[in-house]
UniProtKB/TrEMBL annotation:
It is found in: Cytoplasm. It comes from Clostridium homopropionicum DSM 5847. This is Beta-ketoacyl-[acyl-carrier-protein] synthase III. Its EC number is 2.3.1.180. Residues 235-323 form the Beta-ketoacyl-[acyl-carrier-protein] synthase III C-terminal domain.
Length: 324
């Protein structure tokens, strides 16, 4: 088995910044409520760029950071719940734009855990020797599936993309992986796709493609599962939480992160948080945060980090990574 390391990262978000007070013109809410309950102050909202376009820009930055050329990429996975199309996949659209002609391309659907799942898949491809280099992207235009009249959801989400280049390595990189799902909780976070409707259907279905969420249930699930995921990736390794420089969690709600930090008896500062500026960008949130940590120079070779995600499905997972 080969080792796998993160060679480069990139991220991109639309320029349009929408502050809490802007949203209070659309629904009955206010900055104080949103900041107090979530920690979110602003988010980026696309004025025309689709998920594939955000993906391409994040990918270009990751490729530059990694110092590779698009022809080196043998696998492109895009984690997204908000693709431009069902067919072609976002990953194939990215391939075309990058001219990454040697890549196999597909999308992964695992909601906010999508990037974690996609990194796990790419890691297996590299570990087994099938490929050397993969491009993994998490990208969303959640603004197109929000009901902008529903204050329970429209305040939470934002648009953006993050990417990472993974490559075969001689040195330890991705140390351990953990993923899981619980389909019994699927009803708590739903984004309907095209509904069954044909000349033989007994009734027409006019369900809107809006996300709906039982926030309380997701909150309870998140606080439990993030702890489990962290414990699972540390299990059977020589490392403890003390050895971890940063935990980069899915950026859903600062309260979830505070709760987890308290339970694990670690300082909040071990968790990298940028949700105040991006809101919840679902599959894009972890790679955007990872890119910020990288570009700010917060990591040195040998530092250990944990990426941890949770989301609709229900889905969850984590990676323990040695930075190099
Ligand atoms: O990526 C994974 C997906 N999602 C998550 O991780 C979300 C997890 N859950 C959460 O973050 C929180 O549950 C929310 C932020 C979504 C909601 O916070 P909460 O503290 O659970 O509030 P709540 O839904 O229990 O609502 C409390 C009150 C209600 O009013 P009443 O019934 O007490 O009069 C809501 O109608 O707050 C009201 N409310 C709002 N008020 C102002 C709900 N949304 C808003 C709003 N502005 N935007």
């Amino acid at each position: 088995m080969f080792e796998v390391r993160i060679l480069g990262t990139g991220s991109y978000a639309p320029d349009n910044v929408v502050k809490n007070k802007d949203i209070s013109k659309l629904v009955d809410t206010n900055d104080e409520w949103i900041v107090e309950r979530t920690g979110i102050r602003e988010r980026r909202v696309s004025t025309g760029e689709e998920t594939s376009m955000l993906s391409v820009e994040a990918a270009r930055r990751a490729i530059k950071d990694a110092g590779i050329s698009p022809e080196d990429i043998e696998l492109i996975i895009v984690a997204t719940a908000t693709p431009d199309n069902f067919i072609p996949s976002t990953a194939c659209m990215v391939q075309k734009e990058l001219e990454a002609k040697n890549a196999t391309c597909f999308d992964v659907s695992a909601a906010c855990t999508g990037f974690i799942y996609a990194v796990s898949i790419a890691t297996q491809f590299i570990k087994t020797g099938q490929i050397k280099t993969a491009l993994v992207i998490g990208a969303e235009t959640l603004s197109k599936i929000l009901n902008w009249e529903d204050r329970n959801t429209c305040i939470l989400f934002g648009d953006g993309a993050g990417a990472a280049v993974l490559q075969r390595s001689d040195k330890q990189g991705i140390i351990s992986l953990y993923t899981g799902s619980d389909g019994t909780g699927g009803e708590h976070l739903v984004l309907p796709a095209v509904q069954l409707n044909n000349p033989y259907c007994k009734s027409n279905n006019d369900t809107k493609n809006f996300v709906s969420m039982n926030g309380r249930e997701i909150f309870k699930f998140a606080t439990k599962i993030v702890i489990k995921c962290i414990e699972e990736v540390l299990k059977d390794t020589p490392y403890t939480l003390e050895d971890i420089k940063y935990i980069i969690p899915h950026q859903a709600n600062a309260k979830i992160i505070e709760f987890v930090a308290k339970k694990l008896k670690v300082d909040n500062s071990k968790f990298y948080i940028n949700l105040d500026r991006y809101g919840n960008t679902s599959g894009a949130s972890i790679p955007i945060a990872l890119d910020e940590v990288n570009k700010k120079g917060l990591l040195s070779s040998g530092d250990k980090i944990i990426l941890v995600g949770f989301g609709g499905g229900l889905t969850f997972g984590a990676q323990l990574i040695e930075w190099s």
